[in-house]
């Protein structure tokens, strides 16, 4: 059964905030978790997630499937995800356009892929295996890129569009990642969004990042440890205008996690921005 | 145009680069547009992996980290990660070979007790994440004749762990909890700690137990009958009071259910 | 005979244990959420990047050259007796 997240904003669910969420039941559209953090057999993490799931919609955003691995995806991991999906019935499941496994070695990061026909075939097969096992569609997210390969024959948005067409997956557009990659690799982030098939976008991510200098080059590091920067808000507002609809938007925060209220304020900002754009574009089309 | 490297080869080479700092970015078929910074860009991926795994290890072994300090922890952590890179994506299962690594780690050979501390921290972590189940209560056994019970096994709660160390690891563990700050010195020769850990609900509980209780519970853990467990415990600890220990285990909810012995 | 004695001892110990347990205190329940649900440990999987290029020592090849790194220098100092001599 395919269910959907509400087209409003949500935030990362962090253990640090469990208690306050249950005590105050704040107005949050939905929560997102990494299923890998709930792959233990039981105990407190499951207790908290069960309680919070009974109050809010949930999205499971995987980081460990390694869909881009040339070796087959790990069936144990897929089964563990399946078990969690059955238990918690999330409204959305997503993963990344990346790889992190070579044989039995798991490299705990989202590593870059060359955008070639071979990569496309590998990842389409792995998405297909995942979607068939789960019995539902998943979304694929564009990663933050620090290195690109010289044998790529597709741009990233072209590659993603092909993935959508060939696997039937949807897209999770990480606007911060687009901006980070665009700065790091020297492409136009607006042009990137213009190339994306908007009807495939099922969710948007926003987060903060940091800037570091290497020699004279600025490199953007996607550390999810601060507020969304102005340039990314602008790109987000362009993305919403371009998509033309409300989309579930998520504020990610993984490093130096602040008070819950800081995440909620970012979430409200995203909502307000999205509402303003959609309302004014509806008025425009009515006039 | 050069022939494209097969994806499997590229991923193999990339992995090699991540683990070997002597390899440079030119080992990979990278975009020339960023040539002047590709080495540093590769370092970003190296850092991401080792930093995140080291953090996961620090979360699992906070007492070990506090005992040894940041430098030693980083060194031991890196050596461990190179020798035992994770095999599973979920960090819940990561790091369980760290105590056995420490036993053989040459720089820890003068600190044998550190491996036992790590063992205790691992047991705590595993107990924390183990399956939830309803515990056996004294009432569940009330209708079964004692001689039948003697031939059965009481299966321990999934979260139950036993540790027998010749070092005072529980005292060390308590003195090095987050927020605990005292100048107490602990004498390593003061005698060992025998411990059990379990989680009747959502909090892990640690208890110091007697040698007899340890023998009794490890026999049950290995699938022995209740009768044999009592006999073994009595033989190894003359002070073992079966009725007290067993009733205490029932009240503390150590058991999951009554099963056939192995 | 010895075996029979043992089994009698075992059965009576079990009988006594059940009796003791049935009259023992019920396990106390606490009302605070921390007590009910357990402490909330942070999960360690996420999709954030680390500290970028500024993190020192990315492989053991670098680290192992520095023997000074391998002298424990934490609260280890407070453990006395046997810290320098290995026990068998």
Notes on the protein architecture:
The complex is a heterotrimer of chains A (287), B (262) and C (88). Chain A has a single domain (9-286), classed as Alpha-Beta Barrel (TIM Barrel), CATH 3.20.20.150. Helices cover 42% and strands 19% of the residues of chain A. Chain A has 9 helices and 12 strands. Chain A has helices spanning 18-24, 44-53, 75-88, 117-134, 156-167, 175-185, 189-195, 230-243, 260-286, and strands at 9-12, 31-33, 58-61, 92-96, 99-102, 105-111, 139-141, 170-174, 201-206, 210-214, 217-221, 249-251. In chain A, the strands form 3 sheets. In chain A, strands 1-2-3-4-7-8-9-12 form an 8-stranded parallel beta barrel. Chain A has a two-stranded antiparallel ribbon with strand order 5-6. In chain A, β7, α5 and β8 (170-174) form a beta-alpha-beta unit. In chain A, 52% of the residues are buried. Chain B is mostly helical. Chain B folds into 2 domains: 1-111, no CATH class; 133-262, Outer Surface Protein A, domain 3, CATH 3.90.930. Chain B has helices at 7-19, 38-60, 62-83, 98-104, 113-129, 138-141, 146-149, 169-175, 211-221, 226-236, 242-251; strands at 152-156, 161-165, 186-187, 193-198, 205-208, 255-260. In chain B, the strands form 2 sheets. In chain B, strands 2-4-5 form a 3-stranded antiparallel beta sheet, sandwiched between helices. Chain B has a two-stranded antiparallel ribbon with strand order 1-6. In chain B, a hairpin with a 6-residue loop joins β4 (193-198) and β5. In chain B, α4 packs antiparallel against α5 (113-129) and α5 crosses α8 (169-175). The termini of chain B are far apart. The model of chain B has no long low-confidence stretch (mean pLDDT 93). With 88 residues, chain C is mostly helical. Chain C has helices spanning 2-23, 33-37, 60-63; one strand at 79-80. The radius of gyration of chain C is 27 Å and the shape is elongated. The model of chain C is unreliable at 55-65 and 83-88 (pLDDT under 50). The chains are: A alpha/beta (287), B mainly alpha (262), C mainly alpha (88). Chains B and C meet through α2, α3, α5, α6 and α7 of B and α1, α2, α3 and β1 of C.
């Amino acid at each position: 059964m395919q269910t959907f997240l509400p087209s409003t904003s949500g935030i990362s669910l962090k253990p640090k905030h469990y208690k306050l969420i249950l005590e105050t039941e704040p107005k949050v559209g939905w929560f997102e978790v990494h299923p890998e953090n709930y792959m233990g057999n039981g105990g407190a993490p499951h207790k908290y997630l069960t309680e919070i799931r009974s109050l809010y919609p949930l999205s499971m955003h995987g980081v460990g499937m390694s869909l881009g691995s040339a070796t087959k995806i790990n069936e144990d991991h897929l089964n563990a995800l399946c078990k969690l999906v059955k238990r918690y019935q999330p409204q959305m499941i997503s993963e990344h356009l990346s790889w992190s496994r070579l044989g039995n070695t798991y490299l705990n990061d989202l590593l870059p892929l060359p955008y070639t026909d071979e990569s496309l075939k590998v990842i389409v097969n792995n998405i297909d295996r995942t979607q068939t096992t789960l019995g539902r569609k998943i979304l694929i997210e564009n990663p933050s890129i620090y290195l690109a390969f010289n044998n790529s024959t597709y741009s990233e948005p072209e590659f993603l569009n092909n993935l959508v067409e060939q696997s039937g997956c949807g897209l999770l557009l990480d606007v911060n990642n687009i901006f980070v990659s665009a700065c790091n690799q020297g492409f136009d982030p607006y042009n990137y969004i213009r190339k994306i098939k908007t009807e495939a976008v099922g969710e948007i991510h926003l987060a903060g990042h940091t800037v570091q200098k290497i020699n004279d080059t600025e490199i953007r590091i996607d550390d999810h440890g601060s507020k969304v920067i102005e340039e990314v808000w602008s790109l987000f507002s362009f993305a919403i205008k371009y998509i033309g609809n409300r989309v579930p938007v998520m504020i990610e925060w993984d490093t130096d996690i602040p008070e819950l209220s800081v995440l909620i304020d970012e979430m409200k900002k995203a909502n307000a921005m999205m509402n303003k754009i959609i309302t004014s574009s509806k008025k425009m089309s009515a006039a | 145009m050069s022939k494209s490297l097969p994806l499997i080869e590229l991923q193999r080479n990339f992995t090699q680069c991540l683990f070997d700092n002597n390899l440079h970015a030119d080992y990979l078929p990278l975009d020339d547009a960023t040539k002047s910074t590709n080495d540093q860009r590769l370092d970003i991926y190296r850092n991401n992996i080792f930093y995140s795994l080291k953090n996961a290890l620090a979360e699992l072994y906070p007492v070990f980290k506090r005992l040894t300090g940041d430098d030693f922890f980083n060194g031991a952590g890196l050596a461990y990660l190179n020798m035992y890179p994770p095999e599973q994506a979920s960090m819940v299962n990561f790091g369980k070979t760290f105590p056995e690594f420490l036993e053989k780690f040459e720089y820890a050979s003068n600190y044998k007790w550190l491996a036992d501390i790590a063992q205790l921290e691992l047991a705590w972590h595993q107990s924390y994440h183990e399956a939830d189940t309803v515990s056996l209560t004294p009432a569940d056994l009330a209708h079964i004749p004692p001689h039948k019970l003697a031939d059965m096994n009481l299966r321990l709660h999934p979260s139950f762990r036993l540790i027998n160390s010749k070092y005072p690891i529980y005292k060390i563990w308590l003195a090095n909890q987050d927020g605990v700050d005292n100048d107490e010195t602990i004498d390593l020769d003061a005698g060992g700690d025998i411990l059990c850990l379990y989680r009747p609900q959502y909090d892990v509980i640690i208890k110091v137990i007697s040698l007899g209780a340890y023998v009794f519970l490890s026999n049950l853990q290995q699938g022995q009958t209740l009768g044999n467990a009592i006999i073994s415990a009595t033989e190894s600890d003359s002070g073992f009071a079966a009725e007290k220990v067993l009733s205490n285990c029932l009240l503390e909810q150590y058991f999951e259910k009554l099963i056939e012995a192995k | 005979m010895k075996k029979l004695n043992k089994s009698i001892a075992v059965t009576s110990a079990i009988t006594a244990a059940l009796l003791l347990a049935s009259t023992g205190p019920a396990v106390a329940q606490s009302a605070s959420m921390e007590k009910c649900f357990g402490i909330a440990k942070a999960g360690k999987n996420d999709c954030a990047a680390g500290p970028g290029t500024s993190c020192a020592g990315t492989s053991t090849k670098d680290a192992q050259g520095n023997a000074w790194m391998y002298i424990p220098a934490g609260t280890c100092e407070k453990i006395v007796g046997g810290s320098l001599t290995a026990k068998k």
